[in-house]
Amino acid sequence: MATDFVDRVVLHVVAGNGGHGVASVHREKFKPLGGPDGGNGGRGGDVILQVDPQVTTLLDYHHTPHRKATNGKPGAGAERNGADGEDLILPVPEGTVVKSPSGEIEADLVGANTRYVVARGGRGGLGNKALASPRRKAPGFALLGEPGDTRDVVLELKTLADVALIGFPSAGKSSLVSVLSAAKPKIADYPFTTLVPNLGVVTAGGMRYTIADVPGLIPGASQGKGLGLEFLRHVERCSVLVHVIDCATLEPGRDPLSDLDVIEHELSEYVADESLGGRPLSERTRIVVLNKADVPDAVELAEFVKPDLEARGLEVHIVSAVAHIGLQELSFSLARHVEQARREIEAAVVPQRIVVRPKAVDDTGFSVRRERTSDGELFRIIGERPTRWVRQTDFANDEAVGYLADRLNRLGVEEALFKAGAVAGSTVLIGPEDNAVVFDWEPTMSTGAEHLGARGTDLRLDEHHRPTRAEKRDDFHARKDAQREAREELGAERDAGLWTDD
């Protein structure tokens, strides 16, 4: 059956890449060396999940599971920074649980406008203006933008309700929701009319609580039969479970006691997410509702089995959703149980303690791992900063490579490689295993930029003397005198016959 309700999707999200910085030199008339003025690149956009009360399904992400935020803009000359990429905000229903592909819970989105950054955009690269310093006055390079996060996440919707109505198909659960609240679910006389959970708000005296109608369960629901496995997750947050039993069913082999035993078995087999703070479903408060008391034979059967159910320690109500029999007593009883469950939850809540874990004094932020492979021995550098620096380096620029070498040396990477046993020519990898940068390591890296002085400097910028008019005149006459002497020397050589040939 086709349905417009989806409660579990796998979402592929891509955050925006950071914009590249730019290497630029300020240009002005009569000022050929105005210094660096390259701007920084913009930050890439984040991918954010946000609870929207108007959204009730994950259907949009089922049809379009690939979502991408915008990239940051590159910088420009004249110290113009690139624009940041726009964040991509994805609205999700309240009660959405974010999981990793391995099943680890990352976030439980409860409360309107609750946000969770599922993928972070990359940092923008610095321009050569930001890289300039008193020791590095003229950087001829800029940093590249950092790529944004790319990942898959699993979104699961778990309905937020205080009371869940569970039972076989066509037991009258939707009818109860329609008469206890203002909800208007689809009601028909065939099994599996309810394909999606229906929520309603019930007011009993001064107490308000929410009630959910879960699609019908059948034997084997906890193993994936019928619709049960897909929708049992919607009762995980509910504090009170109500067994709605059809006392007027004509199906052979069914009676209220056997129906209850089947549903109880499915509840005990279903494994709830303990990380969300939920107890096993079999340990929740349970109430039995014997429905369809407007049918004479059903009333007799309900009165007959009620003592047996009460002997099990269950609270039993005989009701009729059609004739509105026993609904007020049921509503106030549910309100009493919900109030007690809320008090127990509040008492069990432990105030969140903020734990501060400062870094150790000798924490360098990276580690060197020596590996032996079929291709030989290699050394892998693992750490957030070295990996980010490598991603931001333009390896087509010798000066940028030299700047990377300086940063790694200051961080202590070179010393750590020596201690790990690396020698000149050893293979060094920086970054994750699936996307690492490979080097043939040399203890001291040099580039052609050193021929103009220290890396990132320009000797011409240190010349602050401006020639006077008299000096310019003397220089002009000196050049003219040199030209005249050269012409006279060439004329003397010609007259002497040095330019003749056979």
Automatic annotation (TrEMBL):
One BP annotation, GO: ribosome biogenesis
CDD domains xref list: Obg
Gene3D superfamilies: GTP-binding protein OBG, C-terminal domain, GTP1/OBG domain, P-loop containing nucleotide triphosphate hydrolases
Binding site for GTP: 167-174, 192-196, 213-216, 291-294, 320-322
Keyword line: Cytoplasm, GTP-binding, Hydrolase, Magnesium, Metal-binding, Nucleotide-binding
Positions annotated to bind Mg(2+): S174, T194
Alphabetical list of InterPro entries matching this protein: G_OBG, GTP-bd, GTP-bd_Obg/CgtA, GTP-bd_prot_GTP1/OBG_C_sf, GTP1-OBG_CS, GTP1_OBG_dom, GTP1_OBG_dom_sf, OBG_GTPase
Subcellular location: Cytoplasm
Residue ranges constituting the Obg domain according to the UniProt record: 3-160
Pfam families from the UniProt entry: DUF1967, GTP1_OBG, MMR_HSR1
UniProt GO MF annotations: GTP binding; GTPase activity; magnesium ion binding
Main localization of the protein described in the UniProt heading: cytoplasm
Stretches assigned to the OBG-type G domain: 161-339
EC number(s) on file: 3.6.5.-
Alphabetized PROSITE patterns for the sequence: G_OBG, GTP1_OBG, OBG, OCT
GO cellular component annotations of the record: cytoplasm
Coiled coil ranges: none
Co-factor requirement: Mg(2+)
NCBIfam families (UniProt xref): Obg_CgtA, Obg_CgtA_exten, PRK12296.1, PRK12297.1, PRK12299.1
Function: An essential GTPase which binds GTP, GDP and possibly (p)ppGpp with moderate affinity, with high nucleotide exchange rates and a fairly low GTP hydrolysis rate. Plays a role in control of the cell cycle, stress response, ribosome biogenesis and in those bacteria that undergo differentiation, in morphogenesis control.
Similarity annotation: Belongs to the TRAFAC class OBG-HflX-like GTPase superfamily. OBG GTPase family.
Protein name in UniProt: GTPase Obg
